[in-house]
Structures are given as C-alpha cells and as structure tokens.
Amino acid sequence: MSDPDRFDERFAPLMDEMRRESRRCPDTTTLLDYCDGRLAAPEAERVLAHLRFCADCAGELDLAGAEPEDVDDVHWRRAATRLDRRPVPWRPGAAPSRTAWPSSSSLDRRLLGAAAAALLAILGGLAIWSGRTGAPTEERVSTVRGAGIVGLSPAGEVEEWEGFSWSLDAPLEVRWEVEVERVDSGEPVWSGELASGDLAAAARRRIEPGQPHRWRVLARADSGGIVAQSGWTSFLLLAASPAATADEEDRRREQQ
Fold it and tell me: Can you say whether the dihedral through the CA atoms of 232, 233, 236, 242 is positive or negative?
C-alpha cells in the first residue's frame, strides 16, 4: 500500500466526521450551557465531540469570554485551528478550562504601561533635580556661611556706639543686610539693608543699653539669594549713643 493510500485510510474517517459535525452545529445557547457546565453528561459529550472537529463553534466559545479588544485575536486563532485540535477533557459540573494565550492587544497594553511608568520616573527625577538646583536653600547657604566675612564691631562690651563693621577676604558686588536680635530670647530687634555700616537713628533706638544682643551680616545677590554670611557676633551696649540720646530727648519734647 502506498503512502497516499495509508493517509486516506487514516484520515478519511476524520474528514467524514468533520463534514457531518459541520452540518449540525449546536446553537449558541447550547454552547454557552456547555461552557458553564449546565448540560447533562450525554449532551455534553456530544458537544465535546463536535468541538473536536468544528473550529467555528470552538471559536464562538473563545469569543464568549473574550474582551472586545481581543476579538481580532480570537478570529485569527479560529482560522488557524487544525484538524488535530483537542479540547481539554470536559467534566460534568464545571466549565472546561482553556489555555490563556496573551493577545497582541494585551501585550501592547503591557508595553504601553511599562513605557508610561518609565516616562513618569524620568519626569519625577527631573522635577527633583530642578528643585534642588533652583532657588538657594539653607543647605547651600551653610556651605558659604562665614566664608571670608568676619564681624568686627560691635563686639563684647561697647561703651559708645560706633556702627557695624566687618572684614572681607575679597570684594563682593552684593547688597549688604544686617540682622540684630536679643541673645536671651532670640527676638528679632532689627533687620535691613545698609548702604554704610551705621544704622539710622530710628533703628539704633531699638538696641537697648544693658541688654545682650548679637548681629550678623548677609551678602545678597541681585536676585535676593544669599551669597555669603558671617557668624553671629555678640555685644552689650553699655550706654546709648549721643545721637540716640538726642533723638530720645526730641521725642519726649514732642510728646509734651
């Protein structure tokens, strides 16, 4: 017997069975009942035998549980179904399990999700980096605190007010600002820009004689950021300055 004869003898019954089954497809309701395990054993076995040879009905079962975006993938798999397809054996009372093949659309969704997560991570890193390199922060200020700026006077016990003075290692094109506060409470007394080392009379009156104070000088750029600053220098004014005394007398006369 030749090879073609053996092929016909082997597969002719299968072809005949497929032709018969294709002419007696169960309706959609019967297929869904089979999928949900609601058919009796004889009817379920008949549907199972039909599914072995009918790719259309097997595809309908795939479509019954498919997501809308997976329909094209199910149609493709149904067209590629071969004669040797064997469904998973059915057992009464349970729906037949099927191998879950990832569809092209689900793979696309996973790739898009991974790309979106990577993009968010990059944008978040850029935001953090730009925030750290933006406006001057307290950490950046601490790196230049006392760098070349030393407060000279007032310092220690001061008998007569002579104004503020400080030394620089190198000239700076900046705006100078002085802060004065109480040592015991940390309460701010005065702060402001100075064109010269002295204070206006109104500001000098806020420094009480006999009370410990401390001051520091800050160098600000035109943008307002702190370029450098000195450390705190403590002082105790023993007597009011002549200008402050004269201003105080003028103020008292005005009140009278």
Answer: negative
CATH of the domain at 155: 2.60.40.10
**pTM > 0.70: yes or no:** no
24, 50 contact by CB (below 8 A): yes
pLDDT range class, residue 176, cuts 50, 70, 90: confident
Q: Is the pLDDT of residue 113 over 60?
A: yes
Contacts of 32 (CB under 8 A, 6+ apart): 64
Number of structural domains, the chain? 2
Query: What's the angle, vertex CA 107, arms to CA 104 and CA 113, rounded to 5?
Result: 145
Rg (CA), the chain: 46
Print the domain residue range for 165.
Answer: 139-255
**pLDDT of amino acid 137:** 43
